[in-house]
Amino acid sequence: MSFSSDILSNPIEYIHGISAQRGDMLRKELEIFTFNDLLNYFPLRHIDKTKVDKIASLTYQMEYAQVAGKITDMELIGEKRGKRLVAHLQDDSGESIELVWFQGINWIQKAVNIGQQYLVFGKLSFFMNRPQIAHPEIETFTEHKAGGKSFLEPVYPSTEKLKARGLNGRAIGKYTYEMLQLISEKDLPENLPASILQQYKFISRFDAYRHIHFPASEKHYLHAVRRLKFEELFFAQLRLGLIKSARHRFSKGFTFDKVGDLFNSFYTQYLPFELTGAQKRVLKEIRKDAGSGRQINRLLQGDVGSGKTIVALMMMLIAADNGFQSVMMAPTEILAQQHYNGITALIKDMPVCVKLLTGSSKTKERKEILQLCEDGTLHILIGTHAVIEDKVQFKNLGFAVIDEQHKFGVAQRAQLWKKNSLPPHVLVMTATPIPRTLALTAYGDLDYSVMDELPPGRQPINTVHRFENKRPEVMDFIKEQIANGRQAFVIYPLIEESSKLDYENLMKGYEEVKSFFPEPKYWISMVHGKMDAAQKETNMQRFVKADTQIMVSTTVIEVGVNVPNATVMVIESAEKFGLSQLHQLRGRVGRGAEKSFCILLTGPKISNDARERLKIMVATNDGFKIAEKDLELRGPGDIEGTRQSGLLNFRLANIVQDKVILEAAKEAAENILNNDPDINMAENLPVKNYLNRQKGKTAWSKIS
Ligand code: ADP
Ligand code: MG
After folding, report:
1. Burial of 93 (0-12, 13-18, 19+ CB in 10 A)
2. Residue 427 and residue 402 in contact, taking contact as beta carbons nearer than 8 Å
3. What's the pTM value of the predicted model, to 2 decimals?
4. Ligand nearest to the CA of 301
């Protein structure tokens, strides 16, 4: 191994003081392999040793103290376990402070001399009103230390294992310090254009790295953090933007240039309602895309019930008009079945061949469907991810709709792309809205459409929170609704780790509901994860057809299920659900013209976070608002709909707290891509060079 000219890629053992053994520990415990890893291992906080305190001025409020003075006496006292070395240090204020050692006594006795000047630092405590530092850091005092350290001292996150080996949060800083001595400006060249540096008054990249570790003051630190956060978000945006713009400029896709008989006859004869303004606008956006000759990759965001399905259907009809087949993928069999039922009902009088393919399709049927796909007879295939398995070969697949995206991974999307000579167009539809900031970061490479309008006549759903002791009243309310011909959902939580418990809860709940609603006056459907698909479907269909008035279920019905006659949604143990899930569940009612209700039942004890969630649910029906709040409460890592959540794990930036920087970074990235799409202009050279250096180093290069 030799010292690499790309100094940042050197192994950490090249840093003075890091032995092979310590290197191993840093790799294992903190995943610090190279200089660059250590450079990007940022401190948790800093300790201020830039001042020397007068002993006379020490107060109880001070966590740490740094003092300078003469050791006046030193004495070994106590025996065995109580044995300790006690010294006193006096400064020119005339006061003295007690220094105590319980360990390493021999070494201190040898190293520290009475009558000499020392600089001492440590955690301050008071014993009998007198200041004391146990196990202080102590070093010989020299004139140039008189003003204290010239920078704040960093404290890094460490682990128990490392601490046990003397590698605590501050020891790591010694290595960082050593390393920074080896690095010069040319090793950390600027990667932002001068105009951006000026606009935001950013310090240079090199300075930012030095100051984030060893700042001269808090102000220096904050400047460093701001600059590095911006850089992080800027390059994330830029990379996504580059992927998007490359697709816009170079990707070839099928052209749907005809609006033919199928679309037109559907629009004029079979569409059961007027499209909303938002639906029309979005259809126009997608059609424009589809006529452009490039491949579509579009995210369609819409609130629950905004009518995304019909938009997808109409695009699939346009695909068929142009001689292409379509697939529509749903995350569950129930949902796939629903789409199939809904779509076949809408186009039953049209010459369109639609089939349903799921994991539970019978062998014979499956064979027939595969044949229809291959010979091109089939226009639309609806199903679970079974529709993109390798066995399913299409004559001419041109359009894919992925409903409720978060259940689908990147791998499945890649599978789709192999299905035809050019990758089919992809329309991704989200189950519930995703916050804008999150969409920017996680889906920045996709084009983006929003349906921010509900079909007319929808009344907002009346949402209330009730404690469990009010269950009888809630059941009475359901009775009233049923007497008016309506139906109700009662939902129980599903926590995967304890599915047995959930099942028991569900059964108990079912019995309880049954005791309020006895047969034969009432009939109840039940659906849960332990049923096979056919059973689920039968029970679901009984509810859809209103043979049963109540659906008792776990969250398997979470997404997409459409029963417009249902007007009551009771959510049991509502405190256990996340916000977007609650919103999604609530969206199962309020789909018809009748006034609908959502009742959130909880036990008497709920956490503050849960209380906050319930409050928001009661306050608003707006999925976009709820999504923003959800992000605030949970942080970006946990939000549903974040495919590749790695994209959201920034080292420094946090897309919730750093929204302002995120917006600025996005704007800056967009400006560059608009003016200089290939990043070739001289002023953008720092950016280009940086991207080139990063090639192969990050997951990004694999995406692009
Ligand atoms: P989501 O966006 O949640 O997937 P759906 O596509 O399931 O919503 O639509 C919800 C309900 O609204 C369906 O019953 C659908 O038929 C109906 N719908 C959709 N668009 C309109 C419209 N423009 N006018 C009236 N009802 C509509
Ligand atoms: Mg839907």
Report:
1. middle
2. yes
3. 0.74
4. 1
